[in-house]
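User: tokens in, sequence out, please.
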């Protein structure tokens, strides 16, 4: 049976999860300028009204996502450290204790790393963007490893960036597992290494009898590992939009 049919035969028991950057929004040089494709907002609203769960799951903070996505759509930011569900914003209590450490690391990054590195303070975590300073990647990774050893923050790789997070056991996979509870089908759409835990969670749900669909977004920067694990491939954010329209 085709993926679309599998996901639409029981909408009220199906959970949909979608990444933001590289999935709903094209990758851009300036991370702060990323915007979802035209038509995404209305489509997500329609899907949220008919499916059990329609959630955007991202490394972005919820404060960014709320400004760029409709209010009826469930949001999970910072890989699960923050969320907006039914209009209420919550933050993981275990992560709050690390806010001061993150503040300190952000200041150190600004002072110690090349000026071309974009240091993004996300509140409960931080990201070092080196898209415009790719020659500095080895320096950034070495700095991140030393910083992690010194502070206890976890290092995570992302697209043309390195992230430092509180050592809290949440990621895109834990979100998929928790929010798919009671569903008979679930789907995740993503393009990067940070989406691999979501695919792993879908594999585990499939083993329990859930009809799981893993959708990988093909772009010049897509994770080869993610592509190899996918059930379905789509071409860039326009392909994601077309796939979601078929679900509608």
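Assistant: Sequence out:
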């Amino acid at each position: 049976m085709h993926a679309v049919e599998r996901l639409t035969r029981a909408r009220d028991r199906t959970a949909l999860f979608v990444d933001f950057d590289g999935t709903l929004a094209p990758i851009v040089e300036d991370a702060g300028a990323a915007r979802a494709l035209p038509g995404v907002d209305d489509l997500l609203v329609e899907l949220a009204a008919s499916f059990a769960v329609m959630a955007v799951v991202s490394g972005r903070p919820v404060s960014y996502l709320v400004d760029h996505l409709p209010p009826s759509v469930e949001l999970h930011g910072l890989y699960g450290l923050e969320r907006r569900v039914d209009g209420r914003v919550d933050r993981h209590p275990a992560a709050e204790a690390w806010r001061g450490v993150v503040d300190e690391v952000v200041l150190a990054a600004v002072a110690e790393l090349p000026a071309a590195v974009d240091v993004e303070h996300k509140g409960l975590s931080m990201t070092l963007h080196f898209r415009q300073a790719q020659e500095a990647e080895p320096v950034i990774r070495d700095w991140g490893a030393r910083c992690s050893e010194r502070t206890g923050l976890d290092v995570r790789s992302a697209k043309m960036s390195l992230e430092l997070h509180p050592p809290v056991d949440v990621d895109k996979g834990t979100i998929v597992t928790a929010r798919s509870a009671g569903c008979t089908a679930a789907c995740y759409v993503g393009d990067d290494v940070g989406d691999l835990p979501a695919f792993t969670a879908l594999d585990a749900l499939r083993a329990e009898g859930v009809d799981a669909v893993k959708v990988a977004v093909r772009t010049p920067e897509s994770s080869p590992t993610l592509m190899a694990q996918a059930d379905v491939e789509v071409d860039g954010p326009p392909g994601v939009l077309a796939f979601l329209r078929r679900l509608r």
